[in-house]
Amino acid sequence: MKKIIKVVGAILIKEGRILCAQRGGEKSLPFLWEFPGGKIEQGESPHQALIRELSEELLIEVELEATIFDAVSYEYDFGMVNLTTIIGKLKSGEPVLTEHQEIRWLSPEELFEVEWAPADIPIVKKLSKMHFNQ
Ligand SMILES: Nc1nc2c([nH]c(=O)n2[C@H]2C[C@H](O)[C@@H](COP(=O)(O)OP(=O)(O)OP(=O)(O)O)O2)c(=O)[nH]1
Predict the structure, then answer these.
(1) Ligand 1 nearest atom to the CA of residue 123, by list position
(2) What positions does the domain Nudix hydrolase occupy (predicted)?
(3) Ligand 1 binding site (Cβ under 6 Å of any ligand atom)
(4) Nearest-angstrom CA–CA distance, 8 and 47
(5) What is the ipTM of this complex?
(6) Is 47 inside any structural domain?
(7) CATH number at residue 99
């Protein structure tokens, strides 16, 4: 039985575009693209973990939707990632890269121009067919 890694990622929307982040080269899944976020710590809700992670890794404050957008599981060689995603928007600050290699605001139809972490594919597929007004 693989270890279960609970992760939460943000689908941050601005002017119809989605914030996409490229992982660093020294991490697991090097240079693949992901939704910014990270591991949920003991006792945290996904929302609490996401607010903490985004303030730590991108130095931003966000407003999150109350409901979960989607959740998927993917078995990597290092463990089973349970990825929960939540839609939100920037409340203050502009993203500052402290861990990521690069960030891009991509429109839904541009999402597959970058190479995503395998766990994210079903979520990215769903988003690529959507349209965001703000
Ligand atoms: N934040 C985030 N992580 C993702 C996504 N998709 C996906 O497979 N993951 C994986 C990568 C990591 O294994 C884990 C997230 O943990 P983390 O953000 O704390 O990762 P990390 O690179 O600092 O940790 P590590 O795996 O190198 O120990 O979930 C995603 O969209 N967003």
Answers:
(1) 31
(2) 3-129
(3) 5, 7, 9, 27-29, 34-35, 37-39, 81, 83, 117, 119-120
(4) 8
(5) 0.96
(6) yes
(7) 3.90.79.10
* Model confidence pLDDT, tens digit, residues 101-127: 999 999 999 999 999 999 999 999 999
Give me 43's structure tokens. Answer: 């006792």
- Written as six digits, the tokens of 57 are 């890794």
Token code pair at residue 116: 């995503």
- Average pLDDT score over the chain: 97
- How many residues are there in the chain? 134
Name residues whose C-beta falls within 8 Å of residue 102's C-beta, 6 or more positions apart in sequence.
21, 22
Q: Which domain holds residue 119?
A: 4-128
Domain count, the chain: 1
At 37, list the tokens.
Answer: 């976020």
Burial pattern 74-98, b for ≥16 Cβ within 10 A else e, equals beeeeeebbbbbbbbbbeeeebeee
